[in-house]
Amino acid sequence: MHEVNVKIPAKAMLFGEYGVLNHGKAIAVTFDQYFFKFNIKVSSNFKDSSLIKIKSDFFSSKEIEFSSKELELKTPLDKKTLFFIKLLQPWYCYIKNRNIEISILNSYSPSLGFGSSSAIISGIAVAFNSIFLDNKPIFSNPIFWKNIRQSIINVQGKGSGYDVAVQLAHYLSQSENEPIQFWVFQNQEDSEIPNITKFKPKDDINLYGCFLKTNIYSDTKKAIYIFSQDNKKEEFANSHTKLAESFINDSSIKNLNYLMKSAQVIASKQNILPVEETTFNNLIIQLNSYKVTFKTMGAGHGDCLWTLATPDYLINNCKILKDDIVFAFSKVGDLNER
């Protein structure tokens, strides 16, 4: 019996949405305030059959169970079971004759846009790397990344892998002294393994404001599909990359204000903002009336809004509910502490 415990932090893409699909650069932030925690047990070999169990309080049934043989099938199943089957398929040769028990001990809502799906992919991959791949260094292990990228394709249809990469980078450098970390991500054309480096912003992190939830869930798979069908996808990808590169060159708050406004112009041109949502539009009107700079987050540009304002300012002036401020750079762990 092998047993591994893994903790994967949340992430948010700051600049570079969709540019990463065209080998562009992206800026992301990871933070420990929200996280997935896993306990993964793998048994010895079984010749005849094996079972895979996923346990979580997030499931209405508390547990999903299926045979490893189902990883080879294409029979329609319920959405959650199908998600895990698609995720695990690249690892089939390692787990086909083993009992697997995956317990999700802590999680956060996918509606926040903080990388819940990628956290699950990351956590399981880290455990399997330890058990099956001799715990080789993650960012120099092509088999590890080949399987991760296939899991992403299976689940989303297409994807850059940036979310998994930055979450894994933070996982490898977890430190109580750095609950928030910034990263530069870029895929390599000749390798499955991405380039990822730590980035230090120029100005005080407390000036970076906070994220507001919109209660709108962005379907990543759908958003990526829509983008891939757009005849201007290369133009949009390059535009997103330029925003990320501009932030890398000048991460001052003055430039950040400009970049956030520019990002909103691009998002509007892409026609993927949730403009049909009354609550979303009312929130935008409220922020604009108080001249609060903001940027939409998430693959569908709707899950959260990143605002350059303090929580106190938003609560006292914009009448934002404290529970709707899901992450604040200036008060890590204070709001919605889990």
Helix fraction, binned, reads: 25-40%
Q: Kindly state the mean pLDDT as a whole number?
A: 85
Q: What structural category arises from helix and sheet content? A: alpha+beta
% residues in beta strands = 15-25%
The strand count comes to 11
Largest sheet: 7 strands, mixed
Sum up the overall morphology in one term: globular
State Rg: 20 Å
- Spell out the helices and strands N to C: EEEEHHEHHHEEEHHHHEEHE
End-to-end distance: 31 Å
Number of helices: 10
Structural overview:
- It is a single chain.
- The protein is α+β, with helices and mostly antiparallel strands and 338 residues long.
- Helices cover 35% and strands 24% of the residues.
- Helix 1 packs antiparallel against helix 4 and helix 3 packs antiparallel against helix 4.
- The longest helix has 17 residues.
- The mean pLDDT is 85.
